Structure prediction request, 382 residues.
Amino acid sequence: MSRRREPSLPGSTIGVLGSGQLGRMFAIAARRMGYRVHTLSPDEDTPTGQVADREFNASYDDLDAVRAFASGVSVVTFEFENVPAATAAAAAECCPVRPSGQVLHITQHRLREKTFLAKTGLPVTPFRRVDSIESLGTAAAELGLPAILKTADFGYDGKGQFRISSADDLAAAWQGVGEREAVLEAFIPFDLELSVVAARAEYGSFVHYGAVENHHVRGILDLTIAPGRVPEKTAREAVEISRAVMEALDVVGVLCVEFFLKKDGTLLINELAPRPHNSGHFTFDASVTSQFEQQLRATCALPLGGVKQLTPAAMANLLGEIWADGEPDWEAAAGMPNVKLHLYGKLTPRPGRKMGHLTALANTTEAALRDVLEARRRLTRG
Ligand code: AMP
Prediction:
């Protein structure tokens, strides 16, 4: 357990590495509680920078810039786990970093993450390390086909993934990952995808938002339904596995565990994200304390907030495709009083780019799902 740390109180400044929508929603939560926020990333006029007090523009590899940034804040957190380990280490020379660089190191690399989970005795999708076309052939024979080849590092939203259905696909998949270290995973014919977003404080206290149900389109999250429509026993198991993951990693902050629920009712961990997650966005509108405020509280060594969900909710992502025929009809969607609109301030809509999301609040998950889909339809009804 970490040494007792003085809390960073309202009025102090929090540093965020990364500048996307997760940092933006973190900054909104932090400013609401009277904190100042600085963000550092290679980009300008960013989703986080538009809301933060100061936006620093530097490469993550510019360690002097990272040290200067970290020297001006009380504590550093991140909204993007793919910042290099050396960046987190440079920041840690100047102030506390939460979650720690060690958590980042494990979760930013699929192979390290899966190896860690398997060694800890947690249920993970069967996998093999691959570093040549020959070892890919051996791994495919051991795991069976179909399987999915994924880059070992820096993958998200289904990028860097290649499905292998027969031996004929092996060469193309190996080329697809750039002929470098990769992970072959058994293809899991799952019934449903679930996730648990949870928070853990400096001294080990743990809270969670329950198991939510996720639907992906082309590898990108499309819809989250909270609570997930799964048996109570499944939801409980997912939470217990998530607690075990956070304890094993000694995470101080927010972490999301994504699961496959197999037809036989068992759960397998697909992947971890050591930060607020898209599947927890509903908490911004539906829960006593949002996942972003929990990240703030954990980062600042404050007690965690209540996690009661006030109403059933459904969240639908707004990808760049929504802009295909021009500006979406915001007024039509705003005509639904139980639907909340979130836009991330991104300047250029591109297909597959997460531009915003909608959250519907209703008395039942079915009604929330119906309304969020209707609101999204209204955006493009022309
Ligand atoms: P990932 O970025 O690894 O979470 O993959 C994105 C999505 O692709 C997942 O949410 C699943 O819908 C699908 N997927 C990834 N890996 C597998 C697998 N081993 N078996 C079945 N579907 C998968």
Summary: Residues 125, 148, 156-158, 185, 187-188, 193, 216, 219, 258, 270-271 surround adenosine monophosphate (CB under 6 Å).
